[in-house]
Every structure is written in C-alpha cells, then in structure tokens.
C-alpha cells in the first residue's frame, strides 16, 4: 500500500532533498533512496526490509524519528542528527519526519533528509495538499491553547521578545511545551523566513557537539570533510538548544564565545565566519539548581538569561484543561474519524483533580489512549486504562492521582527509573566505557547519551 500510494509523492519532492525514506507501520523500510552521489551504501537493495536502527546503529527506537512517528504520531521538523552508519561513517543531517495517516490510522512514516555536507537547505516543504494530516509548519502563538492568566502572560512575552534579537532562556518541566514557545517566537519574528534548527544537547555526545555547532574542514582529522555547522546553516534564523544544561562545561564556554563574538571557526579551519543567529536555550528545571550543581556556566547563564521565560506546569493553570481537552478531542476526532463530543462529568472532575506531572504532553497522550477504547460519544473513566487501579476509590483523595500501581506517574517515568538503575548496577562491574556499552548491547554513542540524560558520572559507575 505504501509503495503505490506515496510513490508519486516521492518523485515530486526528490529534487528538494538528499534522501527520502518511507517505513510501514512496523517501521520496516519500504522505500529508501539517495538523490546525491555518495559513498554511503543506502540504496533500496540493501535497506528494504530493515529498520532505521539496523541502518544507523547509534539509533534506538526512542531516538529514531521514524519509530516515534509510527508509535506516537510525532512530527519532527528541522532536527539535526548525527548518524553513525554501519560502515563506521558519521553523517550529520537535517531531518524532517511525518506520520502517514489513512482513515485515522498511522500506516507508516516518511522521512526527508538533507545532509549537512550539502550547503543548500530549504526552510521547509509544503505538504498541505498531500494526504499527510500533520502540518510541518512551525508553531505560532495562537497554537498555545489556554485562556488562563499564565498563558496570556506567556503569549504577551512571546509577542514582546519576538520583536528583538536577544538570546532567550526558556525553563519549564518536561511536557510543558518549551519548543512550542521557541518556535512561536521564531515564527513571530523578522527571522521567520529563515531556518529554525532544533538541537537536543542531551541527544549528542559532547565530543560531537563542536563539529555539529561549528562545522569541520576537510582533513582536520581522519575522515573529516568540509561541512557547515548549524550556526552557518541557520544564519539569519534561530537555533533552539534544548537541555543545554546537559552540555559539557568546556563546550558551553565555546558556545558562549560564539554568541558573544558572533563568529565561528570550523574545526581545523583558520578563517572565522560571521554569523547572525538568535539563540533560544531551554532547560527542564529551575536555572538556579543547574547553577548550584555546576551544570551550567554562570557566564553562559548570564548571557542567555537577559530574557527568561518560564513555561507554567499544567497543574498551575488547571482552568485551561477543558480547552486543551476539547482541542485534543477535536484533533483525534479528525485523525481517527470518530465523533467524540466530550468527557463524562466523572472524567472532567478527575482531569481537574489530577496533578499532571507529565503536563500537556501527558494530557494529550491520555486523551489519545482513551480514544482507542471509547465506545460512546463521551469519554468515560473506563476508557482510561491507566487509572483502573483507582476503581472503588476516589481519584482525588490521598494523592492517589499522582501514582499508579508501582508509584510512577507514567510508563515512561517507570521505564526511565529502571533504565537508570540498570545502567548504574552494570556500570559498577564494567572495566571501561566500551566494556559497559558492550555489556548493555548498545553503542558508545547511545551510552553517552543515556549517561548525560540521567546525569550519571563515570566515577559512580565504577573505576574507568
């Protein structure tokens, strides 16, 4: 089905990108093609029937944009990725991935790639006339749902700071929508016709960040090619640096120098290049705790914190929950071809009482889950499988709404706790970082990402 329905789509847009990959609902590659000359062997013959994780061994299901698209319906826009090919070759690319939806069901995903080796980039691709239901346009302030005073203040701040070029620090809990705010600032600014590049600093080993930021010069090290970094690519636009507090302090110093001097020098190069880029950085905790724990340099913090924007957690703006619920119901009605009119009074009371530790993202996922079980025109309590342990008890008493059977507020939280404990325990017996990666059966790049994600220090994992 994928091959027939979307082949014309591929042939229409192949001239705008360096490569296109299409996967089915199981994330098995059904089409994969490069449109540029390359020594990377990625043709259909050797990739059909495999998954992106098979092709790029440093990816996992959670870091693969294709897997996230088919599992969660997630759209990825202008994300810079460093990919490790099975041949050992490292490749930096700008990725755009979209779920493919038919009759309300995700039947696959399409991923377009532009390699950073190629210096010509498009800002976006207009798929509005095609069958994909997820628009790739960047968010605007009106996409921020809510009428609470907290949201009105947030939109006011976005409008004001969009008129300037000052660097910005956004902080807020996981799931509050920090990238939505960053995109809204860019979309409302004079930079809106230039590139918006999002980079999660925790997703890339610190040893690679410098080349991703500033680019490389051919011959600067073994295998190095002339590549533009994201500062060059986003010239005139905006760079969003998420989880900046996970970045190595030495790399933070180099970032600060680039921001202050508005110049960058490629690795191995000697000629500095002027850059005009607005930096929007984000952290998922209070800035002061990052400073106190020496996870963000004070001088970088002072440079970025001239404008600080806090994205409020959902529990502090519960008046917005009915609006968000209605918005997500409308969204999933369209996507799943259903006609849900709202939620029952019992569910409405529960949604108001629950603390939502996963914030708007958790609410959205909960509504989506309930849609799969709803059998009437109202979402009932029974349509929320995760709340079954509360049967016979009040969902709003004794803090019960904050935890499920195992004491975690979500499956993700439980999985992350297990993963962190598992790595820590295995690390105590490992003799080296390479040995630990081998024992865990993951790549060193993936291990580095997880060490940064969970703030695990090598010294706590044994003698390395």
Automatic annotation (TrEMBL):
Keywords: ATP-binding, DNA-binding, Nucleotide-binding, Transcription, Transcription regulation. One of its GO terms (biological process) is regulation of DNA-templated transcription. SMART domains: AAA. GO terms for molecular function: ATP binding; DNA binding. Residues 144-372 form the Sigma-54 factor interaction domain. It holds the Pfam family Sigma54_activat. CDD domains: AAA. SUPFAM superfamilies: Homeodomain-like, P-loop containing nucleoside triphosphate hydrolases, PYP-like sensor domain (PAS domain). Coiled coil: none annotated. This is AAA domain-containing protein.
